[in-house]
Amino acid sequence: MVISEDARARIASEIAKYPVKRGALLPALHIVHEELGHVSTQTAVELAEIFEIRPGDVMEVVSFYNMFHATPQPRHHVHVCTNLSCSLRGSRELLRALESYLSVDDHGNTADGRIHLGHEECLGACAYAPMLRVGDVYHEDLDLEKAKRILDELD
Amino acid sequence: MLSIPYVTGYLTEHFGDDEFTQIGGYEKRGGYRAARKAMKEMTPAEVIDLVKSSGLQGRGGAGFLTGLKWSFMPVETDKPKYLVCNADESEPGSFKDRILLERGGHQLIEGLLIAAWATGSEKTFVYVRGEYGFPARQLQRCIDEAYARGYLGKNVMKTGFRHDIVVQRGAGAYICGEETGLLESLEGKKGQPRKKPPFPAQYGAFGMPSTVNNVETFCHVPHIVKNGAEWFRSIGTEKSPGNAIFGVSGHVVRPGLYEFPLGTRLDEIVFEHAGGVPDGRKVKGVIPGGMSMPILPAGQLDVPLANEFLRERKTMLGTGGIMVMDETTCMVRVACVITYFFRDESCGQCTQCREGTGWLNKIANRIERGAGHAEDLDILGDVAGKMEGRTICAFADAAAWPVQGLLRHFRGDFEEHVRQKKCPFTQSFEL
User: Fold this and answer.
1) Hey, which of A16, B176, B197, B427 would disulfide with B328, CB 3.0 to 4.6 Å?
2) What is the C-alpha to C-alpha distance for residues B346 and B148, in angstroms, rounded to an integer?
3) What residues does each domain of chain A span?
């Protein structure tokens, strides 16, 4: 069993909030990601049992959403918004500079496998551009030095 | 850190005040009195009539009349009814719902309570975009406070009315902001929009009658109940009453949020309030309502921000995201950014959208790198025209309109790329 008892209990309390079990699938996938970082085939099988659906139904949902992953992930996901408002304020230059700082390509992982760096579409921080997010934590009004410091402080 | 609006109004006037995010501070400023009034002194039908006569229009992009939408909910039904709050704010250029969640959680909850009473809904699902971790946690904290105070749960304010609020986090898909894509996602599925009819009022969340409104829309409601429909109609224009929160971004001195009555002029907001373009440069174009809405050129900014006026200029208010581009901006690069976004976010269900967004992006990229042909401009317009109005949801329209707007007002930028076989805008933002 890869999904822990604790996670199963949290999933059960999410299910209780919905009129239909499956309503809690996205919350369950968030819980699984917090605990395991991704949804492996075994995780999908266990989730399918909990939700009384097929493993394929789980993976179909995983593959639809950018924040869910079917493969093991680096500890930190760093995304620089490159949508229009951010691009107008230098976010693409910032992303290129951070790529060379970490020696990664667009949507690459660092050699030590700790950090994933990539671009992302609008994150709702348009007035505070350029910006990046680490997981669901936003860092806004950045310049290159501030951004490098944020990367340096990741464990 | 999200800054409070530079100009505030009834929605945001207390947002600088930390106490306002706590239930005690919210009550001290008159909070939850409107919900109490609605539930104890008004029938559901009276609340719907009030919202109808206020003329409140949805603030999520489409601008549909809120009271009318509520009145579509069946009254005589054995089925449970649900309210759905669309907090999947993902429209590029839009960041107003984020502050309404972060700084005004109780205002939203009060709006939800009134809407729940009016529509007879036993539960609200608030669908918050996955990336909005902090806003979602702030809202959840407010919801917990409201339960502890007896404003939510089995017996709301001792009226016998039951209401629960469930927060669900999305997971990074723009299409889940489309109301039926959202409903699918809420049900634990891929967020692919549904064919309509049936509309959500008949067949909504989990197949039950549902009403879906945007965060900001709900936030206006307590103020309408408190101050009346006439008060609301005295703000804004005759056809578009009330305030709206505008997000200003791009090439301006003071990017940020601004709460103004609808009908406030676009040039007034861009130049007087947001300080115009930095370093004395000139404006080239402004997108008035989030990236899906067609751009306006510098000469057409003297327009009141209300749909009845914007429509005359072939654009719309959308979500109120004002994106300003200065004279250095290459509009073909803008087209590349916009079409990339829609190509990336198309859910793939309808051929016109799945294929069309890809072609728009390929052709824009080709023109930008100097490999475009003269006929490419017409092909862009042709593809956009064939996407519009032919798909299950409005996403394809949202992808087509900005391209049509750029061709309408900045065709010269495209032609110049083709003629020079390169991008002539050397000072423009980088791709």
Assistant:
1) B427
2) 42
3) 5-64, 76-152
Query: Which tokens go with A21?
Result: 């079990």
Per residue in B264-297, pLDDT (tens digit) is 999 999 999 999 999 999 999 999 999 999 999 9
CATH topology of domain A5-64: Arc Repressor Mutant, subunit A (1.10.10)
Please report where in the chains the tokens 């049992």 appear, as a residue: A49
Conformation bin of residue B244: beta by default, left when phi > 0, alpha when psi is -120 to 50: beta
Pick the closest to residue B363 from B343, B391, B389 (CA basis): B343
DSSP one-letter code for B61 = S
CA distances to B140, B267, B297, B408 from B324, in Å: 34, 11, 10, 17
Domain A76-152 architecture: 3-Layer(aba) Sandwich (3.40)
Provide the pLDDT for residue B367.
98
Q: Does A137 touch chain B (CB under 8 A)?
A: yes
Instruction: State which fold the B18-233 domain adopts.
Output: Rossmann fold (3.40.50)
Q: Does B344 reach chain A within 8 Å, measured CB to CB?
A: yes
Q: Which residue has the tokens 């990229």?
A: B365
Please list every residue in chain B whose beta carbon sits closer than 8 Å to the beta carbon of residue A123. 131
Predicted ipTM of the assembly: 0.97
CATH of domain B243-326: 3.10.20.600
